[in-house]
Amino acid sequence: MGDLPIDGLFAGRPREIAPGRRSAIRKAPLAPPWRIEAEGLVGDRQADRRHHGGVEKALHHYPREHYDAWRADLPELANEFVAPAFGENISTCGLTEAEVCVGDVFALGGARLQVSQGRQPCLTLNFRFGRRDMARRTQETMRCGWYYRVLETGAAQPGDSLRLMERPRADWPLARLFALLYVRPRAFDELTEMAALPELAESWRALARRRLESRKVEDWRRRLGG
Length: 226
Fold this sequence. Notes:
The chain is of the alpha+beta class. The longest helix has 13 residues, at 202-214. 25% of the residues lie in helices and 24% in strands.
């Protein structure tokens, strides 16, 4: 995997995206230099701190090549499908859920970032794109993106690259994790492995443990559709 140049990082502040609903999903380029702290990019905010933000969701990365697929799927929304439409802080080409693995450590400028979990789509995407099925589509296509925790704080500048430094879980690409969550959710042997991954965010390990204990799949309806 080669270095991936970063042309810009994105940040947003909470605002109303639907009557009675606030979100910071609508982000814009942030002026450099970019300071990355323990809870993410300085200048970025979240409206719902219960479900977004925090040390395990410090930065969101969304592959830019997914936008071509979205424009093909939903041509009527083609103009909407440009970075950072999914609320990402980082946008690159050349790195997708098929290539990135749980626990991967990347250098970005003076910061060190570790892949902590994938993104579970929620109904905020429905409001953002004006489609009641957008969160479900994102989950079904597994074009979800992922989050980083910050191992070392630091600053980045235009032209800096995202460089892979460590890969402790090469057998756990995010595509496998998403397939386990959404396609084969009763693969209990793999869920046992997932629950034991020390690099995976605790909330996702707990999800695996709940499935193992209950032998049931959680109800996605509220998260995806309200």
